[in-house]
Amino acid sequence: MGFVLPEYRHPDFNGAPLAGAPAAVFCACPADGVAPAGFHATSVFPEYVRMQDGHWELLRRSRMDCVIRLGTDGRPEVTEFRRLRKGDMVAVGRGENGEQGIYLHTGGFEPARQCGGEAFAFRTGTSRETSFSIAYDTLYDIMRHDRSHGRIIWVAGPAVVFDSDARAAFCRLIDKGYVHGLLAGNALATHDLEGALYNTALGQGIYDKRQMPLGHYHHLDTLNTLREAGGIERAVQQGQIRGGVMHALTRQGIPYVLAGSIRDDGPLPEVEPDVYSAQDAMRNLAGEATTVVALATQLHTIATGNMTPSYQVAQDGGVRPVYFFIVDMSEFAAGKLADRGSLTAHAILTNVQDFMVNLDRAL
Amino acid sequence: MGFVLPEYRHPDFNGAPLAGAPAAVFCACPADGVAPAGFHATSVFPEYVRMQDGHWELLRRSRMDCVIRLGTDGRPEVTEFRRLRKGDMVAVGRGENGEQGIYLHTGGFEPARQCGGEAFAFRTGTSRETSFSIAYDTLYDIMRHDRSHGRIIWVAGPAVVFDSDARAAFCRLIDKGYVHGLLAGNALATHDLEGALYNTALGQGIYDKRQMPLGHYHHLDTLNTLREAGGIERAVQQGQIRGGVMHALTRQGIPYVLAGSIRDDGPLPEVEPDVYSAQDAMRNLAGEATTVVALATQLHTIATGNMTPSYQVAQDGGVRPVYFFIVDMSEFAAGKLADRGSLTAHAILTNVQDFMVNLDRAL
Amino acid sequence: MGFVLPEYRHPDFNGAPLAGAPAAVFCACPADGVAPAGFHATSVFPEYVRMQDGHWELLRRSRMDCVIRLGTDGRPEVTEFRRLRKGDMVAVGRGENGEQGIYLHTGGFEPARQCGGEAFAFRTGTSRETSFSIAYDTLYDIMRHDRSHGRIIWVAGPAVVFDSDARAAFCRLIDKGYVHGLLAGNALATHDLEGALYNTALGQGIYDKRQMPLGHYHHLDTLNTLREAGGIERAVQQGQIRGGVMHALTRQGIPYVLAGSIRDDGPLPEVEPDVYSAQDAMRNLAGEATTVVALATQLHTIATGNMTPSYQVAQDGGVRPVYFFIVDMSEFAAGKLADRGSLTAHAILTNVQDFMVNLDRAL
Amino acid sequence: MGFVLPEYRHPDFNGAPLAGAPAAVFCACPADGVAPAGFHATSVFPEYVRMQDGHWELLRRSRMDCVIRLGTDGRPEVTEFRRLRKGDMVAVGRGENGEQGIYLHTGGFEPARQCGGEAFAFRTGTSRETSFSIAYDTLYDIMRHDRSHGRIIWVAGPAVVFDSDARAAFCRLIDKGYVHGLLAGNALATHDLEGALYNTALGQGIYDKRQMPLGHYHHLDTLNTLREAGGIERAVQQGQIRGGVMHALTRQGIPYVLAGSIRDDGPLPEVEPDVYSAQDAMRNLAGEATTVVALATQLHTIATGNMTPSYQVAQDGGVRPVYFFIVDMSEFAAGKLADRGSLTAHAILTNVQDFMVNLDRAL
């Protein structure tokens, strides 16, 4: 009882090798969108940058594969290559052990060093035959904690709303306060809204699986209706949409990002057509996540994984882990998605329908 | 409310083409284990054989890909090729529409003919994105019904006992009366017994997933212990085994078959080394099943599927469907396993752990 | 010998039910991007629209799930919802059999009607155990034919360039004239260019699989280098890029579309950030394809499948099929991708590496 | 050029910790089939047992999860639990570092120690996106070498003979001398023989994929024909079987084991019904393998993997590696199968059809 976040151990800045480390070197970008040669790339782990005055600055809202730019306030910030402007000062140096003023701290949340035998066990892969009872219990604990002491951001593919029970479970989790943001695409929203309008997904009953006459028109009619209404929010206000995930989010005022993709029909008016604007909007949510639950989508999960750090820095400077749960049916996808080298990433190999029903029952 | 078995409609023996059908022809087997040329092979569906006196005999305890032998009581029985003896009389003729005295009745449980549109929908494949809410509800209904009005036979691969919650769920389902027989192999039993002795599966904690020191010896020690004890039943009686699936089955006196395979270590004393003797023992259970639930094993599921008819004939001659549920993670396996062409076969694409936990909660 | 395209049989416009069909009705769009109620949605199949003067117009460059708009030249054109402007005239009516002046012709390339038995066989699903010899031979024939008498458009995920032999095979197929266009994303191009600069993909040798020191910087350095150079074309001209798929395409002047996605790092300058502009560019290529080969990508394959018709109309009015080959490892993906209901879609379940090597050897 | 087997480095018996190691202790089995408490279990790696006279004996024809019994010749032999007899002397002690007279030598074929970075890379998993060019080239080299300087044992599931090109490739590889033994089941042989008799597999043309009328009888007629003929060898001699894999093996006098399983129809007369007798027969072949190629079967591959050591000891005492290649479509299966912790196990994720065609072309 009583879930406790693992304690974060800061590096020992006064011992070797950090005590004698130089300040990080920042070089100017030669052109818009181009980093200086030898730029340092960030990871999902906590990284510290030694500044000119000798203090070590922990990066906030970090993300993978970006660069460290000196902000206008003189503090380092993590930014995408595409946002660089000519003359911006970007940290260079690829050492990760302080030798160039940058320190990558991978073990901050780990308990004291363990013996080799257990290290070996840790590397054991995850498959459909892995025991998941403890992963579920861990997730339940974290969800209860982060419901009021964190930000739980969901990432979801359309399969989550194809099934009646799973969709209803998602709605209840929203209403119970376990959803602080959703990252998805046009397909999830469209199929969910089709469910609200026709009780079908792609023309098939979401409970009884019956194929409706002319059911293949349902998702196009849904898109046309929503486009005519001026978007999801208006359609909810006008009473056209009376149930489902998008309805629950709208009613509760929970933010979401619908990122456009080349597969989209329609799209819905809320969908962001520019993928890099979409990335920015997603990172706004992912960057403040304390827990991410990613369901049955490779595209959005990888995108979110890239932009979510493995830690959060609170306003008081406290550091806590960001938990990242991935639910998928395939070892290939789960292995690819959960491969963050972080103790806080968990893959659960199962059907997202059962996962949602389990979660709703437990919480 | 109130689950009702679908009614079975017998063929119209007095209309065309059956009214004028000849009696089936039986020919003698030329050698042991060899059927006469042109033998008729059985299916999972109800088949009727016209006898010399003109009446149609519905095959009982049928199974796929076997032959129809005239029994010593003069009635047709379905038997494997390997059980034929020289001189046995076996039905010949490959027509299935009465033209040679044999009639295959595939639509006996279907409601009245439906229009083409729905027929098309029916063929829609099952994938991880299929909605499974109704399949679960159907399963729950059938389980409740067949708990006391049928025989629920389970087929299970070892993954069912790798996880703490799933294994506990299975034990509870046994105790609640939902298991009338189990078909499995050496691996399931060994891992379950390892769980009872060490709380691990292959040396890894079934709840906490911790790798135990020398844990890879656990399953060998389990086998050695059970072999020394003289088998599962004795080990339960002697108090060496105090929990788990095999313990629950033994305590409740529920029959099981552990079929040997070339992968086996040990094996446990209860394992049947001869696969064809194992087939006979399995068919004894499968042949009286009214519902089969097959979990995460291709080998045993295909074997069981081959030997389970899609219908049962009660002593009073009433005919009811046999339901066949398959739980697997892969479309490939599920497609292969559920491909019986029968309305009563259902595949649920998910992790068997979640499936068991769901089932236990619902029942 | 000698591959011959199947003949296309036009519908019988003079028989029932088409002879007496009314002209199609066109209604005005109520707002930008919104179709009139009851709009007709297009499919991948040939569709005919009866015009006011009574003649039937076959849609050209059709695609799935779009609408039929009356063009400025008075002829019907197939367009996306998002391209509609208020007042545009769009065909309404959901009948597909002429009853509202629209006729969907699904069997134009099929030989004369076949008996039920074979129709059943045709529905047999595709799995890893399907025999693919004839699919390969068919593909080889079509490739040889369309090399000079068609347009072969490729769709490819990054896995195609992760392997040394497969990447080299792709380059040779480009040089031999079997590639008339490529639809891909930032990842394929970046990994291919990383191969050209470092002989690695994500830092791992594409032949020897050795992990290079600081190899995880390779793809970021590649992106930065290309961004600094001003794009792929310049980098090829300047001699920075001397091999690989993007080099071969550039050297041969073969068009490609790199569609942006939310997963992208960088991106490369050639990548289109707006997904709907990307759709338009993709449809420019896909719309003139006579054969599509789609390799190991769900996102781009589904997108391309949606915008590719199952037939092409030549300038002389001749109609030929568009062949669509999908190569993927998973039954789930292949089933989803190949599900066009068209005789000309083929899934081959295999690793794209072997597929490319096979294709290169055979052609 | 020219493939060279890696050199085997024996342990340093004269340095710590082996110089001072005690002799291994052997204890008597308390009953038939039961090992003494604390028995030592073998692995796939070379293991040395210190004998009373102080010399270290390298285990020959070892296998996983068996025990070390003192043979009648006073030398240690590796044997299954089920073969133990009361009073047999079996090595005890679970230390693997000489402390109890047993030494497990895992790194005998590895080059000198490498730095941590590369060790990390080595653990990188194998997926469909892994580059396989070098794995193929390695396999080709090994096959050419072992064709005349080793024993190449194949393990195959039925999918290998479902496709016309793959089946023909297999036959050619047999004829070219690349097959020294085959481990398979009733299904592979039956489908192959159906191909010889009807040019179908399960009634479907192995090249043209056409469903033959009454084709579902083909495999039963095949079984019946072969049973009547008295088996495969006779059917080949009598000219009933004129092509395919079983024909090629029979003609060339190459040994094979067909192990029975509970899925079997028939079975063919050559099939071994007792799975533990089948294990013994399989181990006779696997135990002398220098290369194993395992194709598209979990059951037989796991069984064979368990009984195949990672090394062979020649009569002159030279030690060489045993290469183990696994070809499968699923990461789950490949991961499970290739997880021998041995440098000599390789998984290739692809369709076995392409694999066979590739191999045949290259050799």
UniProtKB/TrEMBL annotation, chains A, B, C, D:
Organism, as annotated: Oleidesulfovibrio alaskensis (strain ATCC BAA-1058 / DSM 17464 / G20) (Desulfovibrio alaskensis)
Residues covered by the Arginine dihydrolase ArgZ/ArgE-like C-terminal second subdomain domain: 145-359
Domain of life: Bacteria
Name of the protein this chain belongs to: Arginine dihydrolase ArgZ/ArgE-like C-terminal second subdomain domain-containing protein
Pfam families with a match to the protein in the record: ArgZ-like_C_2nd (PF21570)
Family matches, as InterPro entries: ArgZ/ArgE-like_C_2nd (IPR048963)
